[in-house]
Amino acid sequence: MASVAGPSQPPVNPTSSAVSANDAKRRADEQNAPRKHARLPLPPPHILAALVPDSPAFTELMKIEQNLDWTLLRKKAELNDALGRPTRIKRTLRVFVSNTAHDQPWQQELAQSAESDAANINAGKGIPGWVLRVEGRLLDTGNVRLDKTKRKFSSFIRSAVIEMDDRTAPTFPEGNVAEWRPRNLQPPLDGFEVSRKGDVNVNCRILLHIEHSPDRFSVLSPLSDLIATKEGTKSEIMGAIWKLIKMVGAQDKEDGTIVRPVGGFEKIIGKDGIAFHKLPEVVGRFLAHPDPVVIPYTIRVDQDFHLSPKCFDIPVETEDPMKSKMASIVSAFEGQEGKEVAAIEDKVGELAYFARDLKQKRDFLESFSTDPHGFIQSWLAAQARDLDQMLGYQVGHGPNGGSVREEDLRRSDLFHMPWVDEAVTIHEATRLEREKRQ
């Protein structure tokens, strides 16, 4: 665009015009640039109807997609809420205890070759002994499909202690007490075993310390008598204490951060009140690790293999198998499938805008071919309005105090360019030829 200037004075307010032109060009570039980062909103249905004949079917599909998106978002929110809450189910851990005997005197008598079964102290062969095995497995749930991951027995055990006969008397050189604890980077086990030398039956006790998540604690007296709870997690115990505080009115009425020694609280906090933030520390003095599961067993060496006539079921809490299924579903929303759906939606938006642009170009060319003169006049009027907006309506002496005079526009250098004379000549020749024909 040529600069607007009069014959006797410099251009008026050129900075504003240049800035407005640059802004208009930038906006045009932004509109024509492909939208890669933001999801494109689809054109309204009435515009799509003018662009694509089959748009009603597309609109119905869009409505179905909106309902589906709403349902998926609601389900995703519900799954995230469920994943945020600790969801645990009660399961049963079944423990089996057995032992085998080897090289016992009665076994050697039954051997066919005494030479091959002769005792060898250096090699450790032929010496009477036994092997105690403690094994366990988690019982299956009703829904076997969701319970595909089988946890090993040792993953439920914090430690295991086996006490044989009198633990103070040195019955065995290796000691009368055997202890197992999980080691770092040690894979889970289905069970463990203890071997000793001996040819007599041995009474033992198997102590299993169960691994709880979250940790559970035994509540000692007198706190257990106040809250009527023998065992529980810290959150459960603190919840029971808070209920007791509200029930007996132990919270100070003037200062709500103080717990008063009323309703039996004097047994655990003393005669003076304490602050609320010190209550967990005081409660921790009355918590202890829960008692282990004790399994009595007699190791028999009068037979090759002996299995306890009883199996021992231990109640444990595990993560709900549905939780892993829900986590996989949530990850699918944000995984590769979710990215593919988002990419397809962006592609649909780009195609819709591409169809709109093609429709605008077609309408532009069709209007020009139908009535070139009227179209050019309308187009020039539109360009004049755009020029007024770019110049801030500074033409004339309007209410905004325009600073560009119409006379300056008429005397613009635009009308003195070489192609103007040629255009005027062609226009006049066309007009004269038309008049002659009339």
UniProtKB/TrEMBL annotation:
It holds the Pfam family SWIB. Gene3D superfamilies: SWIB/MDM2 domain. InterPro entries: SWIB_MDM2_dom_sf, SWIB_MDM2_domain. Residues 1-42 are annotated as: Disordered. CDD domains: SWIB_like (cd10568). Residues 216-287 form the DM2 domain. Residues 23-33 have a biased composition (Basic and acidic residues). It comes from the Eukaryota. This is Chromatin remodeling-related protein. It comes from Kockovaella imperatae. The lineage of its organism: Eukaryota, Fungi, Dikarya, Basidiomycota, Agaricomycotina.
